[in-house]
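Slide 14.
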Amino acid sequence: MKKILFMLPKTQQGGAETQLLYLIQGLDRNKFQVYLGLLYKDNQLKEEFESIPGITIKYFNKKSKWDALVFFRIKEFIIKNEIDIVHSFLGNHYAYIPALMCKNTVGIGSIRATAEPKHLSFIERLTEFTLPKLFQNNSKFIIIANSHKGRAIYLKQGFSCDSIKVIPNGIDYGRFSNGNRKRIINEFNLRNKLVLGMVARLVEGKNHEELIKIFKKLTEKHNNLVLLIIGSGPLMNYLKDLTKESKLNNVVFTGNRKDIPDFLASINIFVFPSKFPEGWPNVIGEAMAAGVSIVSYPAGDIKYIIKNNYNGIITRPDSHSFMTNVTKLIKSKKRREYLGDNARKTILNNFSLPKMVKKYQDVYNKIRMKND
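Slide 15: predicted structure.
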């Protein structure tokens, strides 16, 4: 049985943190003994992780940003518990450095960065690219990307094509395919409305401003539309002011919500005009699991998920093309259902949680330990 220490440096809940939660829940406990290392006690997913049976959680109590002694505390824990694999989701130096300090331990870094080095700070460049590049040819280190987009950025920085494995994110199909549509319809009075929706943080790259302008034009020809903007962020007030200036009274800002499956069940067309440097956008997979027809710009790995006009629509990155394709779906319920049904099948067959967990287990199983 291999012993795995997963390291989670961040305190907030995001896509990487959620994927780690899914992975730990799904690992075969007959083959893997699981430990979770948290740098801080105030992690937003603390309760979820603590509820997983058969997991040992260790808090390493990082004192500050520059607390280098935390690496020695991790090292001591690895040696004491005879850890075979240290796998860090984000902050991958918390896997690489302790593994280097321990003779029989392998370090795995899950890379999810989609930003070019020029947009990163010195410390981010060091931990995202410099350290992994130093170790890439060492058999004690493995790099896993959750997207082809992320892998391509690392190859551009001089990594070898064989040094990075790609394991796409997994989607909790059971959760996102069974949302409570009626509850959201009743809460927001959406009866007899055709609902467009987007789930994303309200930041510039997600392109909500352009979406609102597109929606304004759509309402000039279709009077039964509602746009749900689900999420929060620094542009919230600006976007609300924009809707007022545009005299739109059918745009709903929900803020952050935990009942995303219910929202997705209530949406007829999921709109995603993101120009953000996406990797593998979880929300696209979640919308597909919910059986929602999707219109998206070609951001990140979307072209590896959506087969155009089969399980969704990928448009050129311009508002005219986007609006034209949304209009076609507004007019055709049959087309929306066709895309949505195929989207469900795609997630179930290719991007389910069991498939993702199996791919990680295959990586762990191939690692030869000294005592094997």
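Speaker note: The two ends are 10 Å apart (CA to CA).
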